[in-house]
Amino acid sequence: MSEVDQVSYYCDGLKRATQAHVKLQNATTLSEAMDHAAKFEMSHFGGERKPIHKKPEREQQSRGRGSSSQSNNKKPFNKKSFKPGHYAPAEQAKEGPVCYYCKKPGHFKRDCKKLKSDEGNDPPRQ
């Protein structure tokens, strides 16, 4: 990479105002460009850096399957008990499936006798 390319690449990473100043100075070497950028930033931004905001410290939690007092209180995830889209109350889940058509427990809508008999009574569609 040539010296001019290095200067251009360096300038691309600077703040817009600093970038414009360094390009106006027509720096031919990387060290010149760095000097111009440093002087400009010190004079215009006072050399102040933005304060680094630290995240509040929190209790270290174990990652993985190690034994800890917290992991003993939680039940392991059971994939069989989790079915997306099924949010039936526990009492209803014990009774078995409930038909969405006739609202009676014991079968699904696809197996509903009332639905099949009602479809047979409809006049043919045109």
TrEMBL record:
<protein>
    <recommendedName>
        <fullName>CCHC-type domain-containing protein</fullName>
    </recommendedName>
</protein>
<keyword id="KW-0862">Zinc</keyword>
<keyword id="KW-0863">Zinc-finger</keyword>
<dbReference type="GO" id="GO:0003676">
    <property type="term" value="F:nucleic acid binding"/>
</dbReference>
<feature type="compositionally biased region" description="Basic and acidic residues">
    <location>
        <begin position="39"/>
        <end position="62"/>
    </location>
</feature>
<feature type="compositionally biased region" description="Low complexity">
    <location>
        <begin position="63"/>
        <end position="75"/>
    </location>
</feature>
<dbReference type="InterPro" id="IPR036875">
    <property type="entry name" value="Znf_CCHC_sf"/>
</dbReference>
<keyword id="KW-0479">Metal-binding</keyword>
<dbReference type="Pfam" id="PF00098">
    <property type="entry name" value="zf-CCHC"/>
</dbReference>
<feature type="region of interest" description="Disordered">
    <location>
        <begin position="39"/>
        <end position="89"/>
    </location>
</feature>
<dbReference type="InterPro" id="IPR001878">
    <property type="entry name" value="Znf_CCHC"/>
</dbReference>
<feature type="domain" description="CCHC-type">
    <location>
        <begin position="99"/>
        <end position="114"/>
    </location>
</feature>
<dbReference type="GO" id="GO:0008270">
    <property type="term" value="F:zinc ion binding"/>
</dbReference>
